[in-house]
């Protein structure tokens, strides 16, 4: 065979390999089995194995249902959902945080769950506050998310270093700043506090501001944002004053991973994050670390509601009953308790509140009690606004960096966020009137 | 001495600058979790076991290989035909066609997601490796054709004419005379196609849902959680992802360089 012919033959042989790339079917029913596709909205090394275990448990007790797990990372999930919605290829069940809920309900991608929940064995066993947060996050249009985990902002602190310095966990912001100053030793590259100046700073600084101001809503009766309330501005100024005084200089661009790295490396003594990092800090520092809820300001404290994680039933699902059964299983006492124990978050299933791991969990129970307490002033961030992410991330984050660098004032920063929220709220109300 | 300072010292610095990230990746992949040693000692392959067997990289790797190889075959085949036509024939609208080919390079993949999604869904190609192969082939073909036409132009047309005078048809003349001389071009275009397809993340993430069909870049992403990063697994996955690309560069580097310059000068 001549060389050109050999080349052609080789190319054709390669084409013959095409059979190796045959299409693999999408979820379908076969052999009396129903396949439910489940998209995890925050796949990763910590969560994926937990879901794999729960799916195996579910399939054991429901032999006619197979669950196909698809892991999507939190950074990509919004784009993946939006593409799937635009092309009618959504999964049966999807992990949905309250932060995603507004976008999904606005696109009419989810099925309402009130009726199913009312008839379910879960009825009355899911935290009423969590259900309220879910309803609020969808713009008050109903229940579109079955909550599974609650989160709450906490400040992790080095209990061992506090003890050495004769300090106790701060109960007010002034105590926190005083402790930060006492624990700062720049010569040893040791700082009392750390400010989130990079990704995620927008929500964090607002959460600190509302905890200090004690304001109970993000909008006043006239629809004007309360972000630029003088009490909020006062706290933002106090935080900015900590920059480089009791915090590392790199904070201006630091996001959560860098903050945590500094905390684990003995460089900072307090770090504000949320219960999502429980596993990380406990694994890295064990008993040396403890947590406290955001301290109070002069007028008491309020809590900016963190995203509640949960599950959505997609409207295009062809197996809604099987999908709901899977959702019910994930939210059952045993599964929900297992899940939240391992991710370090607050269970949505109230039966889990009696479990030993929860009662002895310290900060997780404390946060759960606070989140479920009628006395807590829970402030709902307007995640239902289509512009919410743009305002709190794209716009607020670089502007907050300018505050830290002294290029703009806390008042100007707060006003820019408030004006953007006020306008977005007015637009939303006009469209939904 | 002067020569060492002027030439070798900057080169050595540049080498360190280039090599350190790779060393860092290898270090994390080969040392135990939690170790702060600057040498991969005690040596462990646990992270490779985790990603290869535990996280499904064995399947991801196979998928990536098939997808990249088939993209390579299609891109090379169509680029040969298109590049030959561009180099050898004059036709109405040729310049506009070339301009259109170049303009396609300005369109980011993300903008094409929804239209591509709808097309693939119509043909039941979502959640099929074919969607990736077709998308990658169409995205890479314009540049590949331009590169290939540069290589074809380098082959004297007189050689083909002589073959045709001796009785060959155009196809036979192409296969017997031109094709063997295009080997550097084929290697260059094929390598670009392979690497481009191997590295693609967006299309794989969007078009494939079944974990059994996923590719290495998407698998790598799953080692990074919202609050937790498995650095050992990430580094081991990075090594797995880098090996084919490094091999391609190592063996066909000279053709790649030639490919770039052929496109630049003759295109």
UniProtKB/TrEMBL annotation, chain A:
SUPFAM superfamilies: Periplasmic binding protein-like II (SSF53850). Keywords: Cell membrane, Lipoprotein, Membrane, Palmitate, Signal, Sugar transport, Transport. PROSITE patterns: PROKAR_LIPOPROTEIN. The keyword Cell membrane applies. Residues 1-29 form the signal peptide. Gene3D superfamilies: Periplasmic binding protein-like II. This is Multiple sugar transport system substrate-binding protein. It comes from Kitasatospora gansuensis.
Automatic annotation (TrEMBL), chain B:
SUPFAM superfamilies: MetI-like. Keywords: Cell membrane, Membrane, Sugar transport, Transmembrane, Transmembrane helix, Transport. It is a multi-pass membrane protein. Residues 61-252 form the ABC transmembrane type-1 domain. Signal peptide: none annotated. Its main location: membrane. It comes from the Bacteria. It is found in: Cell membrane. One of its GO terms (cellular component) is plasma membrane. CDD domains: TM_PBP2 (cd06261). GO terms for biological process: transmembrane transport. InterPro entries: BP-dep_ABC_trans_perm (IPR050901), MetI-like (IPR000515), MetI-like_sf (IPR035906). The chain crosses the membrane at residues 7-30, 65-86, 98-120, 132-152, 173-198, 231-252. It holds the Pfam family BPD_transp_1. PANTHER family: INNER MEMBRANE ABC TRANSPORTER PERMEASE PROTEIN YCJP, MALTOSE TRANSPORT SYSTEM PERMEASE-RELATED. Belongs to the binding-protein-dependent transport system permease family. This is Multiple sugar transport system permease protein.
């Amino acid at each position: 065979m001549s060389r050109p012919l050999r080349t052609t033959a080789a190319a054709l042989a390669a084409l013959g390999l095409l059979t190796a790339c045959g299409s693999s079917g999408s979820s379908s029913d076969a052999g009396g089995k129903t396949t439910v596709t489940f998209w995890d909205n925050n796949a990763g090394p910590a969560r994926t194995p937990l879901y794999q275990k729960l799916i195996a448990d579910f399939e054991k007790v429901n032999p006619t249902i197979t669950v196909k797990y698809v892991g999507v990372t939190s950074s990509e999930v919004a784009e993946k959902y939006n593409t799937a919605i635009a092309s009618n290829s959504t999964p049966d069940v999807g992990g949905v945080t309250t932060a995603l809920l507004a976008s999904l309900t606005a696109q009419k991608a989810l099925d309402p769950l009130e009726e199913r929940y009312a008839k379910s064995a879960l009825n009355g066993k899911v935290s009423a506050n969590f259900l309220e947060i879910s309803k609020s996050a969808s713009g008050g249009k109903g229940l579109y998310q079955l909550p599974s985990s609650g989160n709450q902002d906490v400040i992790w602190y080095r209990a061992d270093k506090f003890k050495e310095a004769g300090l106790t966990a701060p109960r007010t912001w002034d105590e926190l700043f005083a402790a930060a100053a006492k624990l700062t030793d720049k010569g040893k590259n040791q700082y009392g506090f750390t400010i989130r100046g990079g990704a995620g700073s927008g929500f964090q600084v607002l959460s600190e501001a509302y905890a200090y101001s004690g304001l109970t809503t993000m909008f006043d009766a006239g629809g004007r944002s309360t972000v630029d309330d003088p009490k909020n501005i006062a706290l933002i100024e106090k935080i900015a004053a900590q920059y480089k005084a009791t915090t590392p200089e790199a904070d201006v661009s630091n996001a959560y991973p860098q903050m945590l790295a500094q905390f684990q490396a003995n460089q900072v003594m307090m770090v504000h994050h949320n219960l999502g990092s429980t596993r990380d800090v406990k694994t890295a520092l064990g008993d040396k670390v403890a947590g406290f809820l955001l301290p109070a300001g002069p007028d008491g404290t309020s809590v900016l509601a963190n995203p509640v994680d949960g599950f959505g039933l997609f409207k295009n699902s062809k197996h809604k009953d099987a999908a709901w059964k899977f959702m019910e299983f994930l939210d059952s006492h045993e599964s929900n308790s297992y899940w939240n124990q391992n991710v370090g978050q607050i269970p949505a299933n109230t039966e889990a509140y009696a479990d030993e791991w929860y009662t002895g969990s310290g900060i997780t129970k404390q946060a759960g009690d606070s989140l479920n307490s009628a006395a807590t002033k829970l402030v709902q961030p307007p995640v239902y606004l289509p512009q919410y992410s743009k305002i709190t991330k794209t716009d607020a984050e670089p502007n907050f960096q300018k505050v830290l660098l002294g290029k703009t004032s806390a008042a100007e920063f707060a006003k820019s966020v408030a004006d953007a929220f006020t306008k977005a709220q007015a637009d939303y109300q006009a469209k939904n009137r | 001495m002067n020569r060492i300072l002027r030439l070798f010292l900057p080169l050595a610095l540049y080498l360190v600058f280039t090599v350190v990230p790779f060393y860092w990746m290898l270090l994390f992949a080969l040392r135990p979790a939690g170790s702060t040693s600057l040498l991969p000692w005690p040596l462990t392959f646990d992270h490779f076991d985790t990603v290869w067997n535990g996280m499904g990289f064995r399947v991801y790797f196979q998928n990536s290989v098939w997808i990249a190889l088939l993209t390579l075959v299609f891109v090379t085949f169509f680029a040969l035909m298109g590049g030959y036509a561009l180099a050898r024939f004059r036709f109405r609208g040729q310049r506009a066609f070339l301009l259109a080919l170049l303009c396609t390079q300005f369109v980011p993949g993300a903008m094409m997601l929804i239209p591509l999604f709808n097309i693939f869904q119509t043909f039941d190609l979502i959640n099929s490796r074919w969607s990736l192969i077709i998308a990658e082939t169409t995205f890479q073909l314009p540049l590949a054709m331009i590169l290939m036409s540069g290589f074809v132009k380098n082959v004297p047309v007189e050689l083909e004419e002589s073959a045709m005078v001796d009785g060959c048809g155009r196809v036979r003349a192409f296969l017997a005379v031109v094709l063997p001389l295009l080997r550097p071009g084929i290697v260059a275009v094929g390598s670009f196609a392979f690497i481009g397809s191997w590295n693609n993340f967006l299309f794989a993430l969007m078009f494939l849902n079944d974990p059994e069909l996923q590719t290495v870049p998407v698998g790598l992403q799953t080692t990074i959680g919202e609050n937790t990063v498995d650095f050992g697994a990430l580094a081991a996955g990075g090594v797995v992802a880098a090996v084919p690309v490094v091999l391609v560069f190592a063996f066909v580097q000279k053709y790649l360089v030639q490919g770039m310059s052929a496109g630049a000068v003759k295109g």
